[in-house]
Structures are given as structure tokens and as C-alpha cells.
From TrEMBL:
<protein>
    <recommendedName>
        <fullName>DUF1877 family protein</fullName>
    </recommendedName>
</protein>
<dbReference type="InterPro" id="IPR015068">
    <property type="entry name" value="DUF1877"/>
</dbReference>
<dbReference type="Pfam" id="PF08974">
    <property type="entry name" value="DUF1877"/>
</dbReference>
<dbReference type="InterPro" id="IPR035944">
    <property type="entry name" value="YfbM-like_sf"/>
</dbReference>
Amino acid sequence: MSITVQLQQISLSVIEAIKENPQLVKTVISYYEENNFEALLPLLDTFPVLSEQNDTLVLELDKSWHLISYILTNSTEMENLPFLVNEVSDEDNMPSINAILCGAPIGKESEYSSYGYLRYLLPEEVRTISAALSKFSNADIRARFDRGILTKPDIYAVDWEDAETEFEWMLDYFEQLVNYYQDAANKVNDLLIYF
């Protein structure tokens, strides 16, 4: 089974309901991933706030998430990183943007997500990341990727021997991530991040 990352726009009121009742997260995720409104019906009397979320799409990053995280943070870590945005990294004087391995945990993460990672970002955090992503240039992306070609760090699901194919594959998902963050920032939504 592959490790894939999903981002889901969600309202603060739904996040608050999930924080108080973490078991709701599986139902909410099922609703968004499978458009399964029936899963929510039994809960609407107790949690009417769940009915607010009827037009939110999930962004699926497939297996590109670790390569994108490396490109943005210059780190191969697969754990939660302790920052959102650093204006200049020590290694290459480019910004470090933590758009994937970030956020505050919800409940006992291992109980509610496939690989034990379930986090959320508040709207101001989404705006901070979105603004930084909008400034991260194609030249920055290429420079970090080219360093990866030279050093061949251990990145999940990346074949450095087929670097150009990997770059094109990652770039498509990267652009989707930038657009998704921008949309969430414009809508003043929270983000749920899980894998």
C-alpha cells in the first residue's frame, strides 16, 4: 500500500467539532473522498455544522508529497516539521515552506488516519503558507530539484535515475498544491492534512 497525502479544505466550525469528537474525522473524510453524504446523515442532528461542508474538494498529492516537501523545505524528514515558513534556509538562501508536514494534531492521530498523520491548519496559517508558495519561483523549484539529482537523497517513491520524468510529475502536483492553498486562503478555510 502506498503512502499518499490528502489535503481537505474545511471550516473552522467543523474542525472544532472534530477536535471535540475526534471519531468524527473518519466520517468527514469518507464524506469528502467518496462524496458519501449518507455517512453524515446520522450525525447531523448532533453535529449540524457538518452540513456546511458540501462543496469542498480533496487535493490528493499521490506519492509526490515527499518530493514536494523536500523541494519546499530542503529536508527529507517524514515527520511533522516545527515551522511554517522560514524566509531563508541556511543551506541555499531560499525560503523553506512547510506546506505538507505541518499543523496541529487532532486526537490520537494513529487511530484516525491510515498512517498516523492527521493535522489541521488555521486560516492564518493557510494564508502564510499560500503567500510564501506564491513567491517560490520555478527557478527555486528547479535549483532544489537539481541539488537532489546530485545528492540523491532518500525520498519516498522517487527514482533519481529518471529525474526529468520525476520532475514533470512533481511539478504538476506542485502547481495543484499552490492553487489549492490559494483557494483555501481566499475562502478563509482551515486545512485538514492526512495520510
